Amino acid sequence: AHAGCFTMALAFQLQGAGFTPTELATEAAVSLVQEGEGFKIDRSTLTLTADVPGIDRPKFEELARAAEKGCPVSKVLNAEITMTFTLRESASAA
Question: Which of 18, 21, 28, 50 could form a disulfide with 2 if both were Cys (CB 3.0 to 4.6 A apart)?
Fold first, then answer.
């Protein structure tokens, strides 16, 4: 759920900035800890691979960080969230 929500938020950020991604692939690895008789997610690590023609790395990172913070699932997790990304070289602006 977190990976899907983040990917949609990032697609929206990119579209709003005038970029059309050809690939956005996100995985979320969550850490569960016991809380009382149940469990809670205390950490989620997003790993993103993207191909976005015409974008440079700083602009992509700015939009990805905004999506990370603005994703509705990120907001309700109440957990530490980290993100790493790979922006394919063919996507970088010349």
Answer: 28
Cα-based distances in Å from 75 to 64, 70, 71: 15, 7, 7
Does residue 94 carry a pLDDT above 60? no
CB 48 within 8 A of CB 28: no
What is the SS3 string spanning 12-41? HHHHHCCCCCCEEEEEEEEEEEEECCEEEE
Report the distance separating Cα 73 and Cα 87, nearest Å: 23
Q: Which residue has the tokens 């950020």?
A: 13
Q: Which three-class secondary structure state does DSSP give residue 18? A: coil
Phi, psi for residue 37 in degrees, rounded to 5 = -90, -5
pTM of the model: 0.85
